[in-house]
Amino acid sequence: xxxxxxxxxxxxxxxxxxxxxxxxxxxxxxxxxxxxxxxxxxxxxxxxxxxxxxxxxxxxxxxxxxxxxxxxxxxxxxxxxxxxxxxxxxxxxxxxxxxxxxxxxxxxxxxxxxxxxxxxxxxxxxxxxxxxxxxxxxxxxxxxxxxxxxxxxxxxxxxxxxxxxxxxxxxxxxxxxxxxxxxxxxxxxxxxxxxxxxxxxxxxxxxxxxxxxxxxxxxxxxxxxxxxxxxxxxxxxxxxxxxxxxxxxxxxxxxxxxxxxxxxxxxxxxxxxxxxxxxxxxxxxxxxxxxxxxxxxxxxxxxxxxxxxxxxxxxxxxxx
Amino acid sequence: xxxxxxxxxxxxxxxxxxxxxxxxxxxxxxxxxxxxxxxxxxxxxxxxxxxxxxxxxxxxxxxxxxxxxxxxxxxxxxxxxxxxxxxxxxxxxxxxxxxxxxxxxxxxxxxxxxxxxxxxxxxxxxxxxxxxxxxxxxxxxxxxxxxxxxxxxxxxxxxxxxxxxxxxxxxxxxxxxxxxxxxxxxxxxxxxxxxxxxxxxxxxxxxxxxxxxxxxxxxxxxxxxxxxxxxxxxxxxxxxxxxxxxxxxxxxxxxxxxxxxxxxxxxxxxxxxxxxxxxxxxxxx
Amino acid sequence: xxxxxxxxxxxxxxxxxxxxxxxxxxxxxxxxxxxxxxxxxxxxxxxxxxxxxxxxxxxxxxxxxxxxxxxxxxxxxxxxxxxxxxxxxxxxxxxxxxxxxxxxxxxxxxxxxxxxxxxxxxxxxxxxxxxxxxxxxxxxxxxxxxxxxxxxxxxxxxxxxxxxxxxxxxxxxxxxxxxxxxxxxxxxxxxxxxxxxxxxxxxxxxxxxxxxxxxxxxxxxxxxxxxxxxxxxxxxxxxxxxxxxxxxxxxxxx
Lengths: 320, 285, 254
Fold this sequence. Notes:
- The complex is a heterotrimer of chains A (320), B (285) and C (254).
- Chain A has helices at residues 3-6, 10-25, 31-56, 64-81, 85-107, 112-132, 134-137, 161-182, 185-195, 197-202, 207-233, 238-241, 244-259, 264-285, 291-306, 308-315, and strands at residues 143-144, 235-236.
- Chain A is an all-alpha fold.
- The termini of chain A are far apart.
- Chain B has a domain at 20-214.
- Chain B is built from 11 helices and 2 strands.
- Chain B has helices at residues 2-31, 38-56, 60-81, 91-113, 138-160, 162-172, 174-179, 184-205, 216-231, 236-256, 262-276; strands spanning 128-131, 134-137.
- Chain C has 254 residues and is α/β, with parallel strands linked by helices.
- Helix content of chain C is 40%, strand content 24%.
- Chain C has 9 helices and 10 strands.
- In chain C, the strands form 2 sheets. Chain C has a 6-stranded mixed sheet, with helices on both faces. Chain C has a 4-stranded antiparallel sheet with strand order 2-1-4-5, covered by helices on one side.
- The radius of gyration of chain C is 18 Å and the shape is globular.
- The chains are: A mainly alpha (320), B mainly alpha (285), C alpha/beta (254).
- Chains A and B meet through helix 5, helix 6, helix 13, helix 15 and helix 16 of A and helix 4, helix 9 and helix 11 of B.
């Protein structure tokens, strides 16, 4: 084959190989492996977010709404109908996509703050509904994924290693989807409307349709990732699954810090942010609940203050 | 009759919603910034009111001006050192900054005060007046009265004081205001301080019938934004109208749906407003 | 040279009107555009030229009147639909997609009628037409202003339009670049395209356009050849003023 063309892929291949081997180098129930799994999961989530927000420029702060919906969908199907989470993935994807399409329609024309506001309200509304609809979701107490028997059939394992590979596969899938979209007609249209929506429209881009499609794909993917989260954690509650800070903001931050609109961005961001967060969490949680979140919030503020233009630079690589 | 009772309840609560939300719209009007952390100042106001009651036996309604004062100072400082830096930055930066503030404030409260719900006990908490067949809860009445007074004071402030007029001028046309020699930075600081102060005041005032916790603010986020969007972002009068409307909507909707889904009704209204008429019901266009 | 009244007009506007609050921005404007022709639109600032373009491209909905493109009404259609019907405009303040490459910019236009597989080639052709073939991979944000003007043209061309609305393309160009654009425009018209051009630069308007529409306060106050328009007393009175009239007389006599 043409070796020269494959050369740039070499570092990626090496990285992939390293990742494939990693779980066997770490204790299979260990803390580090657990963090590694979460890094992969959040990178995948950011990538899913990236598909809508990174390409079209619409800063959504409500993706937790789809995420939690996915987690609850598959878990409830498992509990009530014994449905395997693998099938639950499909159901979750449909639910997430439908919600995303539903939210996308009325918020289509909103810009900047208004759009962020609307999506934030959506995420919060989902959280409140899940908290109040106790008969369905179990309410604020949360819901447990029943541990029936370890194995692929029900996507539950005692060891962390299978989870690692599942998360890795999920990350690869989201990256491939992102890349395919970015280089497709849809991707070009999204990037065009992000730059200048009116110019895009006058060149024949159906901006509403493009945003709708991107949103739907993004919502569906992240809902499916919610299923993985549920199966990994075995327990979650509305405040966690629909968390504004813990999910919505975090995945946006990861994508933006790593470089929004690029394939590598979410990966870089997740590797940077999550371990730091985990470390501060581990160190500070013993002192007081909430301290680690203060640090997270402070980091968020610091990123903005120290780089307000830089944030723009990260958001739109070249302006004017 | 039930309906009338619901409407009256809604109006009483709505008055407070108005005061709570006016700050948000004021900040947006003057600085074009949506303060996602606004609801956290409600929580701050609640805690000031609570500790005023706990330590000094001060009724939360009397403690409200103190809540205002403390929040005002904090607000001015935050504006001066943080918000001002992103005034001309892109939306992303502003959104992230105020959301970061939201996270910090909420968790700071968690660390300082713990997560237990705290409530006050006042003499009039459970009393109610009976007016022509309608039952009017006294704490709600007091809250409404205070809101009314505050509303009038605010109106007077914006109308008759130099800085109030400067704020209105800046909200209308920042550049022109500059050329009139108005110190825009000072105006922004005052506006922000005033805005969060009012929200904090509202927090203290509702303490007799609401419990304080680090997440109290979060309960009000969607509500505040609905109020403000209904009335039009930037319009103080709109916030009054929106507050009353939201109060009534919330109250009346409990007649037809379970109380937990109140917020859902609100959310639907919110999204519908943004989709159909983002400039608010009162705007001329 | 230009198809005159015997063929059906490519675009037909009747009674176009639009109000903004108390201002009548467009007042009963009617005109026809034929294939293979270049028509200019002039008028003082605020005369309604931009409003006209915005109504033609679907960004503003007229209060009254009809716009027919190839015999079909386009009033009320979304801008992207109007583009696919064959009407495209360039933007006055540069609106190139800054963080996309030159080729990607033009490809967006080509996507109006082609799938991604062939869109890139079509885009490259359009770019060749405006002379940007050497800059395909450059980020559009890094282009010079004249290059951006050409990119605007190429992007619009890539949508394979029947009617092109050019909104003050000449503003940032040197005179030799302007001559290039003028030559390009004449080539396009010769190939069958219809161009409607807003320009302030009188010399360009005179040399480029066979016909000129004059707007003032939203009304069409004159329509005709450059010679007719520049000697029309209404036009002279309302818009040109003594200095511009002298310029015109100069340009005409050259």
